[in-house]
C-alpha cells in the first residue's frame, strides 16, 4: 500500500508541475457548494482515497499528460521522435489518454489571455503545460470500472469528463482539472445472425453488430465487411471515430443516411451504466424513454453507454463520381455552387450520399457515392453537371467515375490508413442544416449566403434527404430539423500553434458572424450537434429543437444530480460556461 501511495503522490506532483503557472488551480482554492470539485482544490481526494479507488479497478489509474511532453526534456529523447512521427495520426492520437483530435482542445486560455499548451514545436518558446487535459482518470475495461468511477466522482463531487477517442468539435471530452472516465479500451465487437432485443419476441430477429464503448468505425466497417454486411456509420476518414459516443448519441449522419436513415435510426439496443451505478438495457421494449433520448439527445448526458447494437444490411457495390472545378471569379463561383445545390435533393432522394468542398477563392470539389447503382446510371445523372462545370469554368472542371465491389473495398483503398486527415490542428466550426424546401426553391440564394462568409473552407455533407426525410421526427431524439433537411453545411476557423489569444478571440468572433450569415439556409436554425459551434445564441433550439423539454425531463429522471453534463448538452444552461458551477 505504501509503495502505491508513493507512486500516486509522484504522479500527482508531476501533474501539478505541468499545471503550474498563472491562473492554475491552487491548493488554497475551494469550490462553492454549487460547484464540482477540480484538481488542486482542497476538496480534491487525497492519495489514500485514490488508493482505495485503485483497489476496485481492473487497471491502474491513468495520468494523462500532453503527448508532446517528451520533447520538453533536457536531453534528446527517442520518445520525442516517436511522437513527432505519429503526431498527426488520428488513430495513434485516439490511443493516447492525453491527446485530442483537434489540438486546441488540449490547450487552455487563462482569463488574462495566457495560453496554457504543450506545442510540438518547442521553438515557439512556450513551456509545456497541462492545458485542458484532465490530470487523472480511470482506464475503464469493465462495467465494474465504470461503476467505480461514477461512484467515486459522486462521492467527492468531482467534475467528470468522459472520453473515448477525443474526437469532438466542441471539446466535450476535455476538461481542465477534471476527473476522466476513459472508455477507449472497452472493445466488444460481436456479430449475430439472429439478434433479439432483450425482452423482445423471439420470432423477430436482426442481423446485427454490437460494439463496445471503445470501438472505432474503421474496425467495425472491416468487421462487418468480412461477414458480407455493412452498417450505417460516419464517413470517418482514417476510421478513428468511436461507435458508441457522440456519433450515435448526437444523431449521426452517414454516406448511406439517404438510403437507410440516420445512424441513430439504425440502433436496436444500448446497455448503459446510469449515474447511480445501475446497469440497464434500453431498447424499444424496456426503458423506452432512455432508448429514445440516447438516439440523438447528446453524448455523456443520460448515462455511460457500454454497448450499442446496430442493425446491418447486405454489402453492395457502389459507383462513385468525383467532381472538381476551378472557380476563377465570383460570378463563376455563384453559378457553380447554385447548380450544385440544385442537385442535392434529386440525388439524395435516389439514396445517394455526397460531399462537396469550397476552398476560397478558387477550388471546388466533391463526390457522390451511389449504392447499388451502375456507373452508366450514375453518369446519366451526373454528366449534365459535368458538362456544366466544363463550360462554366472554360474547361477547368468536370466529373470522373469509378466503381467498387463494395463500399468498404473503396473506403479501405481510399481512406483507411489516412489518420492524419482527421487531425487539422486548431479548429472551431459551426454548421447549419440545409433546408430541403430552400434547396429546391432558392438555390441561388443559398449559394449567395454561403459564398458571403469569410470562411476559407466550406463543407457540404450531402447525406441527409432521402430516407432521413421519410422517418418520423418523433421516432428518435435527434434534432427534428434533420427530417426536413438535405445537407449539413460546415464552416470553420483555424489557426496555427502559438497564435496569440487575442487573435483566436477575433477568429471566434468571425465564426459567430459567419454563422449568422448561413443561418438563413435553415428554416429553423437547425444544426447537427456533432458539427456544432460552442457559441450558438440558442443551443436548445439549434441542436435539439422541440425535443428539448422532453429530453430535460428524461435527464432529470436518470441523472437527477447532473453528474453527467457537457457544454451545449441537455441541462448545461443551468451551469456556467465551463460547466463546473451551477447558476440555476
From TrEMBL:
GO terms for molecular function: FAD binding; oxidoreductase activity. It comes from the Eukaryota. Residues 130-315 form the FAD-binding PCMH-type domain. Residues 1-24 form the signal peptide. The keyword Oxidoreductase applies. The keyword Signal applies. Keywords: Oxidoreductase, Signal. Belongs to the oxygen-dependent FAD-linked oxidoreductase family. This is FAD binding domain-containing protein.
